[in-house]
Amino acid sequence: MRARFASLGLALLAPLLIAADKPVLVPDISARQVQIRYSFNGAQLLLFGAVVYPGGQPPDRQVDIAVVLRGPVQPILVREKEKIAGIWMNADSNRFRSAPSYYAVASSRPISDLVDERTAAIYELGLHNLQLSPGGGALPEKERRFEAGLLDLRSRQGLYSENPHGVEINGGVLYRAVITIPSQVPVGTYTAETFLIDRHKVIAAATRDIQINKSGFERYVALAARRHRLLYGLSCVILSLGLGWAAAAAFRRRF
Amino acid sequence: MDIYLPIAGQSVNALLIVVLGFLVGLLSGMFGVGGGFLTTPLLIFYGIPPTVAVASATTQITGASVSGAMVHMRRGGVDLKMGGVMIVGGLAGSLVGAALFRLLQSTGRIDVVIGLLYVLILGWIGTLMLVDSLKSLGYVKVPEQTTPRPRHNRWVASLPYRWRFHSSGLYISPVAPLALGFLAGILTVFLGIGGGFILVPAMIYLLGMPARVVIGTSLIMILTVSAGTTMVHALTTRAVDIVLAGLLLVGGVIGAQYGAILTTRLKPDYLRLALAVIILLVGLRMFLGLFWHPDEIFSIEYL
User: Fold this and answer.
1) What is the count of structural domains for chain B?
2) Is A233 on the interface with B (CB under 8 A)?
3) Which of A193, B90, B244, B264 suits a disulfide with B181, CB 3.0-4.6 Å?
4) Out of B7, B60, B298, whose CB is closest to A153?
5) pTM exceeds 0.80, yes or no
6) What's the whole-number mean pLDDT along residues A211-215?
7) Do the domain assignments include residue B299?
8) Closest by Cβ to B2, choosing from A39, A221, A240
9) Which residues of B are less than 8 Å from A78 in CB distance?
């Protein structure tokens, strides 16, 4: 345990030691863990931090910050409905091997003003730069159609979002961004990445992990449904029989 | 009041679900049907994933049919032998249905199959009931039948290996109720409906069972098959959400009691007319849904 802390400390200090002439990001999140409980209907995370410049003096020109929160990657199949013989039904489909289950980017200015396309693609900044790994060797035109459909669908569900003015920078040093998580996010390890951008280049980056877990009763139910299927099914049946019987008994006495 | 559903993986308004359960329970108490044909589409309209909606509605049907089945058991309005044969068919049907369900799920055609089945069944049963209730209310004049309807259906009577069903006073082959139960079992898995509104007319018109034992027998059958289907869903699709089912049940079982009380104060023919109209409206909505431009062209399936 101590060794792990020591190496962690070293890893954190390393940028300070190696590149003393470059600014360093010190990020933090309002919550390292999000617990999904019975009353969970989404959460707001505050991603904030400071930029430490060498010499302690921020530059005269404006620097920019982009914050990315992404959920665990899932392989998915996207289906497209088509009108066949007058009826809308699923026809074509396309596989994406690495679609993030949640993706939100906030920046102090629109991404396209901050970095060029190549840099945006490298750091996966912006919805259109996500590496979704479409599979199956489909035509590029079809792939684009499905990608647009996926981005549009998840944007409207609140799972993908882009806020071009979501980061507030104070005195060139302190920054903060509020990111909203809807209730239907999957559980897992989320990463919050912060990028310091100066003159179209990413000059510093830092990452923090956030755990989103079901807790208490919700966690117990989700686990039971997966691991003890027979007992879970039986308890559902017993619950319905019991409630039905109880209502009948209660009303028989009254009327 | 928002509450998080652990299996559906989203939060819903708990009060709204309880009220939905209550209204469906009211109808199921009034008409002696499970009410799944209303719960499932309404949950899907609300935004619950279809598989979770189907599986959890099945659990509610069990609860709603318990009290009715108890009442009929006490009155002796249940043909246990006939019910047993139909339950065997129903459980077999639910297993075959689950296999078919998985197959269609993997090809992505399940939505359209569910939609088409709903339209066909609701349209057919709704029209039958509408015509029937209009006739008995005297709005539609029917010419007097000169030849009385034969008590036995010709097809059913031609089946081999006849058994004697004492409570129903029938001497027919068990193959017919077995097949009927099988069909109802498949429908329970596919549509999250108990199949009561199919079983009851089929038992009267096809098997020729006396009305005295029809409702009780069908309730026993629905109770067992929906409980079995809940188990099948829990074991295969793992889509039963106990919190969602619990909320539906709390409203549903109470609604069913009030519905049963209301039944004694209303004229049964008007009840049947009302049920026919509701069934046709739901069927019409599903029918239009097949042709309307869907809200979402794209859908996501997790691998």
Assistant:
1) 1
2) yes
3) B90
4) B298
5) no
6) 87
7) no
8) A39
9) 298-301
Using alpha carbons only, give the angle A86, A92, A98 rounded to the nearest 5 degrees. 145
Residue B62 lies in a domain: yes
Q: What is the mean pLDDT of residues B82-91?
A: 89
Residue A38 contacts by C-beta under 8 Å, 6 or more apart in sequence? Answer: A216, A217, A218, B3, B4, B243
Q: Kindly report the nearest CA distance between residue A160 and chain B, in angstroms.
A: 14
Q: Is the ipTM of this structure higher than 0.85? A: no
**Which pLDDT tens digit goes with each residue over A158-202?**
899 999 999 999 888 899 999 998 888 888 999 999 999 988 889
Contact A169, A108 (CB under 8 A): yes
Question: Which structural domain, as residue segments, surrounds residue B210?
Answer: 2-291
Taking a contact as any Cβ pair under 8 Å apart, which residues of chain A between 78 and 97 contact chain B? Answer: 78-81, 86-90, 93, 95
Q: Provide CB contacts within 8 A for A36, sequence distance 6+.
A: A187, A212, A213, A214, A215, A218, A219, B4
Under 8 Å between Cβ of B248 and B28: no
Cα–Cα dist B66/B256, whole Å: 10
- Binary contact (B7, A80; C-beta < 8 A): no
Instruction: Classify residue B59: in a domain, yes or no.
Output: yes
Q: Is residue B296 domain-resident?
A: no
CA B47 to chain centre: 22
What is A22-214's CATH number, 2.60.40.10, 2.60.40.1930, 1.20.1260.10, 3.90.550.10? 2.60.40.1930
Q: Is A140 on the interface with B (CB under 8 A)?
A: no
